[in-house]
Amino acid sequence: AQWQSLVVLGLKSDEVGTAVSIVSSGIPRGDELAVEEQALPSLVRDARQCHTSSMLWLYHKARSRPGVIAPDEQVAYWRLLKAHYEKQSDDLYRWTSASLPEPPPAEQPANVQRLVAEIIVRC
């Protein structure tokens, strides 16, 4: 289908946020998993650049599909998202922070700290 060519072309883009836009754009039923698998490296790259929408997508996807990212990465994104939402003055952000479910425990807390430190400098 023509939309598959557009997905491939879009995922070649280095523009931060393109991948999350693609996976959130209403992919035809039955093709979501294939597109998500193609987009995963770009989503992780963008999340590591402190793109909150990419972090949020990966965080929630990891909750519904364990193994999509490492547990320590999920914990790191949760910490970064909580900090981002809590420093906002908007009630919606505070509500989003309060409703963000806590992740499972980290496997290696030092790894979480390293990931948070690596990402936070880009925020």
Task: Describe this structure as you would to a colleague.
The chain has seven helices and no strands. It starts with a helix and ends with a helix. The protein is globular, with a radius of gyration of 15 Å. It is mostly helical.
Shape: globular
Mean pLDDT, all residues? 89
Q: Report the order of strands and helices.
A: HHHHHHH
Helix content: 55-70%
Segments where pLDDT lies below 50 for 5+ residues?
A: none
- Measured between the Cα atoms of the first and last residue, the distance is 37 Å
What is the overall number of helices?
A: 7
What summary fits the major beta sheet? Answer: none
Provide the β-strand percentage band.
under 5%
Class per helix and strand makeup: mainly alpha
The strand count comes to 0
- Rg calculated over all Cα atoms: 15 Å
In terms of quaternary structure, what is this? single chain
Give a quick rundown of the structure.
The protein is 67% helix and 0% strand. The protein is mostly helical. The mean pLDDT is 89.
Keywords:
123 residues; mainly alpha; 0% strand; 67% helix
Topology (SSEs and partners):
Elements: H1 2-11, H2 18-23, H3 32-48, H4 52-64, H5 71-86, H6 91-99, H7 109-120
